[in-house]
Design goal:
By secondary structure, the chain is mainly alpha-helical. Among the domains are: 105 residues, no CATH class; 32 residues; 98 residues, 3-Layer(aba) Sandwich (D-Maltodextrin-Binding Protein, domain 2), CATH 3.40.190. It has 27 helices and 5 strands. Strands 2-1-3-5-4 form a 5-stranded mixed beta sheet, with helices on both faces. Helix 14 runs antiparallel to helix 15. The N and C termini lie far apart (66 Å).
Length: 613
């Protein structure tokens, strides 16, 4: 079963896309090729599963046969590379890594104007790379901890995975409303390969790969452009995805897939704008981008937004600017991209219109809009928009950052602000603001434009300082600046606030749940003593409430409980047997009262002495 599940995983994530990219001789970076292959594989699998199901050929034996043919195809296409030695490949890869690393940093001229700007940019670049590596490591852990888990979220269990099981049984789900099926079809591959739809491990392992692909592409853009803004975007996206998608990154909700495919379309535009003037390469990126945004459209309805605007954006941002003297030539690729979108994305919605017209299912758009209105308890559109935007919480600050950044960013990112940043949240607030997950198409653009805006502010600030003559300042200004920082910090962080934070944090040491219970009890009985070996005396405000005792001496225990100041006994499980028997008997006689048993950290039981003999 494991072998068949692994084969299904490779089919979903790697093999079909790799074959296509090799066949068209795609020359992107290593990371780009891997992520593009992943995305292409998902889209190809969606089409293949749809067609095989339609003709009744979606069976285990057919998939295994197809897989074997693909493996032979890989060996054939990569036959020349497979003949080279492992050592040569390792040396080549390592040398490329070293060259790329060295190229990231430059040595500024000592006397040239702009040296401060250059050094500051280099420092920001190094810091942002380190921070982005931390975000990538967070994703690696997310993927690791997701392995071997099953679908447990409501929609993932009752809808998305149920549809995947229907696909695996050879039927197209008719009750899926408008929800498209790229993810369920790819999940179904593992069920058909294994001949068992009860094992979800391999299907669910796909989900963290979408956010990982997004982060790796941003990181790769940073390496290629040497722009710290892309590395900062990796860091910012970690917090944005945690805030707006949360458990949806791994639990089987498909919004993270929409986020991934939407950014892939943007990635092709960025690379076509900045990296190539080769017409063939630009057209290839255009076609690939059209496939990717169509993947967004067949992952969830929100993805249709980027599917519709992508050809328009690519035309105005790339084709018209690079080939303005021969616009007739670009009509064919534009028409081809639109045809790709219609074939891949629109075909699903046309199919659903037919199903709706036959009365076999019904659309959900009106229902979702009503749910959004009810979520905000709104009586008018303006109130609903305001209420929806409050869901951005502290991340709302990024909107003014981006709006100001509009005046500093290159035209490409201004296009993104105008076409996505401004209109999409408004559309979301009307139709789908019952959940922040429905911002999936918007999120990667939100994070990227915000990060690039911050980078632009930093660059312009440093340039302004250099124009003001910062190069002429002497080293003695540094102690003065340190003094100013210390003085300002002492004002911002007064002693009372520092002590308050210390006390707040210290109240959580050892076992926070036990401490909370103890504080609630002793607030009503501030002089009560607790006979315990739990370190109560280290908790702020409870320094005098503990009578230390290890519960290992029965005679000493009897002497302690005769002390009228001791009102409570707090003990672990491993205590002296005679003491344990005594406490059990007294609880039965109701001379002692059980207050709580807390299992956090180490299990402790707290009893109150009601009466003594």
């Amino acid at each position: 079963m494991f072998l068949l599940g692994a084969m299904a995983f490779l089919q979903s994530t790697y093999i079909p896309g790799t074959l296509i990219l090799k066949q068209v001789n795609f020359k992107g970076s290593t990371i780009q090729r891997i992520i593009y292959a992943f995305a292409l594989s998902l889209v190809v699998n969606y089409v293949v599963v749809f067609l095989l199901t339609t003709i009744g050929m979606y069976h285990q034996w057919f998939l295994i046969s197809l897989f074997v043919l693909e493996i032979f195809g890989l060996f054939w296409l990569y036959r020349d590379q497979l003949k080279t030695s492992i050592t040569d490949n390792l040396i080549s890869s390592w040398n490329n890594f070293i060259v790329s690393s060295k190229n990231l940093l430059t040595i500024p001229s000592h006397n040239s104007f702009g040296s401060i700007t250059s050094i500051s940019a280099q420092i920001l670049l190094v810091v942002s790379i380190i921070l982005s590596l931390g975000s990538l490591w967070w994703l690696v852990k997310l993927f690791y901890y997701n392995l071997g888990t099953v679908f447990d979220a409501w929609d993932a269990v009752v809808s998305w995975n149920r549809w995947a099981v229907e696909w695996a049984s050879g039927a197209i789900p008719l009750d899926s409303r408008n929800y498209p099926q790229l993810i369920p079809t790819n999940w179904s591959l593992s069920y058909v390969f294994m001949g068992d739809n009860s094992v979800q491990f391999f299907a669910k392992a796909l989900m963290p790969l979408f956010s990982m692909g997004l982060f790796l592409l941003l990181f790769d853009l940073g390496v290629t452009t040497k722009n710290a803004g892309f590395f900062l975007a990796v860091v910012l996206m970690q917090y944005i995805l945690k805030k707006f998608l949360g458990d949806g990154l791994t639990n089987g909700y498909v919004d993270v897939a929409v986020t991934f495919f939407a950014f892939l379309g943007l990635d092709t535009i960025i690379r076509a704008k900045d990296f190539t003037d080769d017409r063939h390469e630009i057209y290839m990126l255009f076609f690939l981008g059209a496939v990717f945004v169509s993947g967004a459209g067949v992952s969830k309805q929100a993805g249709m937004y980027i599917t519709l605007i992508y050809p328009v954006m690519f035309y105005f941002i790339i084709l018209r600017s690079k080939f303005s003297h021969e616009l007739r030539v670009v009509i064919k690729p534009v028409a081809s991209a639109i045809l790709i979108s219609i074939s891949l994305a629109f075909s699903w919605y046309v199919y659903k219109l037919i199903v709706f017209s036959l009365g076999l299912d019904r659309p959900e758009v009106a229902d979702l809009a009503q749910i959004a209105a009810q979520t905000h308890d709104s009586t008018n559109i303006i109130d609903q928009v305001i209420s929806a935007f409050r869901m951005f919480d502290k991340y709302f600050i990024l909107f003014p950052v981006i709006i100001v950044g509009f005046f500093f960013l290159p035209p490409l990112y201004r296009w993104l602000i105008v076409t996505i940043i401004i209109p999409y949240p408004l559309i979301w607030s009307f139709l789908a603001s019952y959940d922040t997950r429905n911002l999936s198409v918007f999120l990667p653009v939100f994070g990227l434009t915000a990060a690039l805006s911050i980078k632009a502010f930093f660059d312009h600030s440093i340039q302004l300082l250099e124009l003001m003559g910062i190069r002429k300042l002497k080293m003695y200004i540094i102690p003065g600046l340190i003094t100013v920082v210390l003085v300002v910090s002492s004002i911002i962080f007064p002693s009372a606030e520092i002590k308050h934070q210390q006390i707040t944090k210290q109240k959580l040491i050892f076992s926070a749940s036990k401490n909370e219970l103890l504080y609630a009890i002793l607030e009503k009985e501030p002089t009560a003593k607790i006979l315990t070996n739990y370190p109560v005396r280290f908790l702020p405000g409870l320094e005098d409430n503990q009578v230390p005792f290890r519960f290992d001496d029965f005679q000493a225990f009897l002497q302690h409980i005769d002390n009228p100041e001791i009102h409570y006994l707090m003990f672990p499980n491993n205590i002296d047997s005679q003491i344990n028997e005594h406490i059990t008997v007294e609880l039965q006689r109701q001379n002692y009262e059980l207050i709580f048993v807390d299992k956090e950290w180490i299990t402790y039981t707290l009893v109150r002495i009601v009466q003594r003999k």
